[in-house]
Amino acid sequence: MTAARVGLRHWSERPFIQAMVFRAVLFLSLLGSVSFAQKPDEQKSRLVFPPAAQSGVPAEATPTPASKVEEPLAVVQKFFLAIKANQVEAAYEGLVRGTIIAEKQENVNDLKARTMQALDSYGAVAGFEVVDTMEVGQSLLRYTCISLNQDLPLRWRFYFYRTPPGWKLVDLRVDDGLVELFEDASRTRKK
Question: N or C: which end of the chain has fewer CB within 10 A?
Fold first, then answer.
C-alpha cells in the first residue's frame, strides 16, 4: 500500500511540518550548543581555573559572601520564572551572579540575545520541567530541564559545582536536542 492510497503525505508537503523544520534549523544555526567555558572556535579545548590555593590566596583566607548561597534547584526555578515573565536580562543576571561566568560578560550578552531569538522562534515559555538530575561524586550536579515553549520545548542543562560557600553554576547549555532526551532515558531504563 502506498502513502498516496492512505492519504499520507511526505513531511515536505505539510506546511506545519515545514515551518517546524525551518524553525529547528534556524534555531540550531543561531543557538547551537552554548557553553560559557568555551568560545565557539575553541570547542575542543577546555579552560581550567586554578583553585584559590594555587592562585596565591590560601583557601582559608578566601572571604565568604555575606549573602546566603541558594540551592541549585532554587536558582533554576528563579531563572525560569524570570524567563516566563519575559525578563531575560534579569534571568541571566540572577543566574550568573557570583560565578566565574559573570566575568565573561560578552558570552552572557550573546546568550541573552540568542535566548530572545529562541523565544521569538519557539514561542513564550509557559513553564519548565526538571527531566533529569545527575550527580557526579559529591561536588558536581547537573539538572536537565525542558522549557515548555509555545511551539517546541528546549533542553537546558545547568552544571553546578560545590564550593566551600555553596553551589555555583559553572556551565549552561541549551539546545533543542529532544531526541537525545529519549535516548538518555532509554539507556537509563535498560540498566
Answer: C
